[in-house]
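Practice problem 4.
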């Protein structure tokens, strides 16, 4: 019985050595060359998470019901700072050139979260999106300022 087990172990060891040798023969230094970044697909905005000093998260959204658009913006930040958020409604006739249509307002907070929700009746035939600019302060010193946009909706 010991002889059979010893023979099986020897065969398994020889087989694994042959597999490693074959794998080593397939290896070439060229396989470690620099990646070709031009052939790589770019990341979408949703796959990129920027690094902020004081901001934990920013959420900007737009929805509609008929010609009424609903805007919401929310920002979570480190509570030792103060944040000011300004929210605007923008419109575009082609979905790429945007103009400020309406100021939804400004909100400030020092408790770690600032948010603003509003709605407006808009004209047909345009794309609309929400723009939120959040500025975080330490006293009178600006720590960071970030502008985010919602997706757009078309009001037909």
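Answer key:
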């Amino acid at each position: 019985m010991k002889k059979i087990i010893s023979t099986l172990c020897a065969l398994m060891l020889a087989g694994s050595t042959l597999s490693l040798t074959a794998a080593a023969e397939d290896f070439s230094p060229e396989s470690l060359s620099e990646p070709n970044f031009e052939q790589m697909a770019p990341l979408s905005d949703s796959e990129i998470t920027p690094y902020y000093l004081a901001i934990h998260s920013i959420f900007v959204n737009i929805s509609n019901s008929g010609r009424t658009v609903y805007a919401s913006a929310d920002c979570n930040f480190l509570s030792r700072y103060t944040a000011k958020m300004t929210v605007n409604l923008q419109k575009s006739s082609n979905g790429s050139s945007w103009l400020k249509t309406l100021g939804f307002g400004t909100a400030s907070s020092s408790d770690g979260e600032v948010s603003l929700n509003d709605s407006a009746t808009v004209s047909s035939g345009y794309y609309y999106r929400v723009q939120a600019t959040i500025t975080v302060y330490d006293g009178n010193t600006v720590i960071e300022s970030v502008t985010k946009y919602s997706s757009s909706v078309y009001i037909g």
